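Re: your question from the hallway

Yes, I did run it. Sequences:
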Amino acid sequence: MIQASICTIGDEILIGQIVDTNSSNISKELEALGIKVTRMLSFGDDHDEIVNNLSNELRNNDIVISTGGLGPTKDDITKAALAEISGSKEYVVNKAQLKIVNEILHSRGLDVLDINKAQANVPDTCEVINNKKGTAPIMVFRFPAEKFGHPATLYALPGVPFEAIGALPDIIDDIKCHQKGLSDIFHKCIMVYGLAESALSKLIEDWEDSLPEDMHLAYLSNQLTGVRLRLSIYGGNKEDEERRIDAEFERLRPLLGDMIYSWQDDTLQNAIGAIFRGSGMTLSCAESCTGGEIAHLITSVPGASEYFLGSVTSYAVPIKEKLLKVRAGTIKKFGVVSSEVAVEMATGVRRLLGSTYSVATTGLAGPSGDEQNPVGTVWIGIAGPNGTYSVKKNYRNDRARNIQRFAASALDELRKYILRDLQMNMSSKRPAQH
Amino acid sequence: MIQASICTIGDEILIGQIVDTNSSNISKELEALGIKVTRMLSFGDDHDEIVNNLSNELRNNDIVISTGGLGPTKDDITKAALAEISGSKEYVVNKAQLKIVNEILHSRGLDVLDINKAQANVPDTCEVINNKKGTAPIMVFRFPAEKFGHPATLYALPGVPFEAIGALPDIIDDIKCHQKGLSDIFHKCIMVYGLAESALSKLIEDWEDSLPEDMHLAYLSNQLTGVRLRLSIYGGNKEDEERRIDAEFERLRPLLGDMIYSWQDDTLQNAIGAIFRGSGMTLSCAESCTGGEIAHLITSVPGASEYFLGSVTSYAVPIKEKLLKVRAGTIKKFGVVSSEVAVEMATGVRRLLGSTYSVATTGLAGPSGDEQNPVGTVWIGIAGPNGTYSVKKNYRNDRARNIQRFAASALDELRKYILRDLQMNMSSKRPAQH
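Structure:
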């Protein structure tokens, strides 16, 4: 099996100033190719550290991918180390990258300084993959077997996650082109919301135990997207594998029902988009404790303007009353964090913006709760052409995580409500067609 | 200087299933003690991998902290590896940890299985720090100088972040007790918004060159918070160092002016909070292209309800007209993405919600632009008691990053506007006091 190591260069990682998310994203892609990641390693912006660590990883792996250590203010150290490892005597200008540097800075209305131009200089021993999202080029060093005892390739990527992840498809293409002995691997995912990973694994235990031996199941949990279930098969023929995996996932339908929100790698806001797009229906929201996060998630989907009319974040109580027409009596009788207020908020914003459906939240994200409700309580209200619905959820996280959970849960409840609503509508119409 | 390495044990890290956040949290604590973290390393749940990697790190460092590889289903491999490294011949029951295991499982209403009890068994070569948040004990191995060429200590922590971070204060106390030669380190940060890292480094080049030799400068860029500049001094006396770093940062004031938004590690939304808190002033916002992100950032600050009244996300044009009273004529004449519409949105939401200040955005986050404006164009409008203000910004990123840039930029413009406004107000009042 082809082995890889992922390295992170930079003092900012070692002193804990930033969390390394690149390595995890890169390893997911390598794993999807059937490449085994043996180690992940972080070390500092220091010539000897870079030379020694990268050389050692190249000795023990077929592929080494490094991120970081490249940027206008600290290019020098890393590039000099890469030049030493690869025996480069001089730097050359990569014209395509220089053009990108100029374009990026001009588009931002910035002057192109010498330190910006210098980013396009690379050791003459490397090939360049252009970084379209930033100024630092991706450098590819291919070492013959003599150097490290076996052929080895080093990919040096910038550390900015947006740029590193942006360059990843090109890196993966390069690996597919040049790396011999890649086995085929086939993956497919489904997305499940509403169960913790442990509860889900208990629920589908028998299904998991009955999977064919060559299928591998992986769980990935995320508070914004729920649990992703992934089935993989190494080797074999693509159409066959896809059909076999689909058949296994299909057996989950009776167990999980509408907790499955997508039959591919997806997000809740995309699933909402898929329901609304082309339907002529529109959506609005009213947010209290989620403070804009639901609207932010909905509008993170390109083309959301087709169905999303807008939202009101009613953080202060008078705004709930004045704008959303939540009755003062309702607040007094049931409290701000209540089923009644959630429903009146949803009804209010639906009427105010004139949307087909609306979703609203009122809750306590933290740090402090109130007398009736602990931190982590949220009421979700939904309004639509066939009535209203509300549901209470409890989480036990810090403020930032509670806000995310509340927002994701609101999207999920909205999704399930609309699907049930549309289904009931269809079935209630059906007898009339006889 | 005392050197440390942080290791993460577990296949789930290597295949990218989870992001390692423990290492970053641990290194922050070590750094605060003046301990230099030389490497961070992740490797798999495999006996030889664990023995070889941990031994190697112990050879090159005074302290090694590992997380992971301890849990009811995979205790065996890691403990056997630790027993081998430390030459342990048998396991002993740690009674205090066994009591905790029993208590935790009982409190969850679960039976105590043999694999749970086994968690309290540890190699006889280690000391135990009890894990109060989970079932796996923290094991401390102290190696004499003969073993690795210098005295070395290995702390083995569980991988669950909640447990690892929960145990950290005890680990730090143990290090302070046992580690000789701990030197002090002192850091301080300032936050700068509105300049790319390269432009900033050019602007403060002379200042950077003139820094005393024992001060180390680090840059950290983030699109939501701008650039963090950090000065560090190792050794010496804490009050002296703080005074010396303050004096150096003070010399940046004439160069950077109000681009410095905080004199400590901070965010723009916190800086906004600091302006509003206790002032009696209130804030609202109207969002188009940012779709809720500004409100989300503002409300991510605990206690934001003191000054943040709410917001309107007017994604559809009719909502801009109906709710925010943007005139149809203005939109027709200048286009939706224009200075005039940004100002009318800000004015409209300020009147609608009755806030002291308001900020609004209208722009094109992508993927597509319009005839007048390329993707990445945003107009920011601000309204307050002394008038209105608008400014245009251009970025060239993908949709998600443009939204973040737009939102951060709007917060920064709002911050600078209010500070200028308050200053003018004060100076216009001053002559009257004569």
